[in-house]
Amino acid sequence: MMYALLLLLTLGLSGCSMGETVQPWDKAILARPEMTFEGDPLDTKYVEHIYSSKEAASGGAGVGGGGCGCN
């Protein structure tokens, strides 16, 4: 019972209603390049290069072939 009350209180204080929709004038803000999960493509390639250098392996960030050498 205590957990249900705490959950209800948390949801009530969150400030987001369940039926919230994005207004047409807000969609331009959400479509900006800064709002993507990936961010800067050059920075992403740089981070992938550093990761593959530290792991001493190449690839792993994309789709690979089968193991039979027929990729």
Question: Your description of this structure?
Answer:
The protein is mainly alpha-helical. Helices cover 48% and strands 0% of the residues. The protein has 3 helices and no strands. The chain has helices spanning 2-13, 24-30, 41-55. The mean pLDDT is 74.
Compact description:
The protein is an all-alpha fold. Helix content is 48%, strand content 0%.
Key descriptive features of the protein:
3 helices, single chain, mainly alpha
Give the count of helical stretches: 3
What value does the average pLDDT take? 74
How many DSSP-defined strands? Answer: 0
Provide the succession of SSEs: HHH
Shape: flat
- How far apart are the termini? 56 Å
Low-confidence stretches: none
Q: What does the main sheet amount to?
A: none
What is the multimeric organization of the chains shown? single chain
Radius of gyration: 22 Å
The fraction of residues assigned to DSSP E strands is under 5%
The helical percent reads: 40-55%
Classify the secondary structure makeup into a structural class.
Answer: mainly alpha
